[in-house]
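Researcher: Structure for this, please.
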Amino acid sequence: MSIAEATTGFPRGTATEVELTQEEIQRYSRHLIMPEVGMEGQKKLKQARVLMIGTGGLGSPLGLYLAAAGVGTMGVVDFDVVDESNLQRQVLYSQSDVGRPKIEAAAERLRGINRHIKIEPYETRLDSSNALDLFKDYDIIVDGTDNFPTRYLVNDACVLTGKPNVYGSIFRFEGQVSIFWGQKGPCYRCLFAEPPPPGLVPSCAEGGVLGVLPGIVGALQANEVIKLILGAGDPMIGRLLLFDALGMKFRELKLRKNPECPVCSESPTQTELIDYQQFCGIGVEEVHPEGLDIDVHTLNEWKESGRHFTLLDVRTPQEQAIAQIPGSRLIPVQEIPDRHHELDKNEHIVVHCHHGPRSTQVTLFLRDKGYEKVWNLSGGIHDWSLHIDPEVPRY
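Model: Predicted structure, token format:
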């Protein structure tokens, strides 16, 4: 599909409806002298409305480059606060922003980048109750999220509103970029019809991410947004770009529309937004059966009372080198199936990881293997540091 076919009638209206000031002409001069952009293209950028979901690792370079390029109206959705651990990769923020709402700090920074654009901040969690209303007033939606429920929500809301979804994802040293647009080609559900089981795919907080990686992937997403607005080049509709930072290699996969896709096919079986937490199988009942968990206060009482038990750490050796609960024993989650026999079935066992997903998985596995006195530490070492021992570093 050509870019002209993909972007017919987009963005809304015509570029002649807006004008560039002398100051804007000077600012965007390097764009204006390019035949692929020129005055007409820069006016398209000024008229465009782009909604960014998330202002974290991907949202940071996205926001900076779209603002600098002169995208006229940028909606920004986020509800988190700036944490010290964000600063390794989220270049929208500085040390002085720690503790501030991300939406507040991001809007301030983006307005500082370009005073000719309009920033529309939404300090809210995107969910099925607000997504359609938020999406309807924008031309392009950019997915900078890091969890499966929101990715499926963004996809489905884009299909229902007819918007292109400029997608990016990152993990460790690897990134992905594509444009999912149900009206013009495949959507995210055509590629990933079902989410992976809960806990199978670790988050960046559990697996880590190279600090520069979101800069590369986010810049690629910004490139696709600008191309769509300009109607220039070859958009990534029906293509998935895979990037390996360690090998410094790019690979491309051709994607096809699924004729039986539940949301973007000619006969969809889903015509409204659903409960995406439940869809991704991360409801409380499914992951934490009654009696599976103990909290950090109970664990502290056990330790202080001298109660005999094994505290099993199922994180990676790299995570244990950062922080550990005194007296814990390390068996990484991937080694549990081959090493669980090293544990005593007659002894009380408390399993912990960073926040809880991996330890929940191990606790359920051990109970299935006949370990009746095993519990999951709710909140993991993060809650231990937060509520019991602040000397244990948080990461």
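Researcher: Any notable elements?
Model: The chain is about 35% helix and 15% strand. The two ends are 44 Å apart (CA to CA).
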